[in-house]
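Materials and Methods. Structural model of Alcohol dehydrogenase-like C-terminal domain-containing protein. The 196-residue sequence of Alcohol dehydrogenase-like C-terminal domain-containing protein from Actinacidiphila oryziradicis was retrieved and submitted for structure prediction as follows.
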Amino acid sequence: MVKPQVCRTPEKRRRHSGSRSLLASAAALKHGLPLVNLVRGDTGARALRQRFPGLPTISTADADWRTQVQDAVGGQGAQVVLDAVGGSLTRDLAALLADGGTLISYGALGSGSTPLESLALIPRGLTVRGVSIGQWLTRTPGERAEDVAFAARLAESAPELFEVAARYDLADFAKAIAHVRRPDKSGTVLLTSPAS
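The predicted structure was written out as tokens:
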């Protein structure tokens, strides 16, 4: 049996939840992977539940969110936790893992930090991995082509998953970062540069 994965992403308060939640949910459904979504607030949870009614979605604003996650993963812990936010809640997310599980971090928008030694890596045999676009570029051309083809099919079949929140000129990157950190942001913030 495949253990469920837990995906934590920033809350978005408008029609859709975060683009990362939407993409992770769509990919999980496509590949038949069990997934539990975590968002920071009730509004984002409701939006994600509406879009993906077959996937459990839990708000970390709920006092009992940890218990809800444990119930959703069958009380045995998750095999993988995807953390698109980072920050001080990472320790709580690592606690949701089954022994031998993996925490995959690909975001750093959360406040605070989590000391590595607080994650009980050694006694529980946990693995922590970071993922970035730079690492994706080291994959084989065939793997990258497969990923791009999947994204193109997804964009054609569900364009609402690729909602753009705002576009900023590269010179305004600080404004773009501030926009990304807003809890009410919906969609992806794009950096652009003038055509040469």
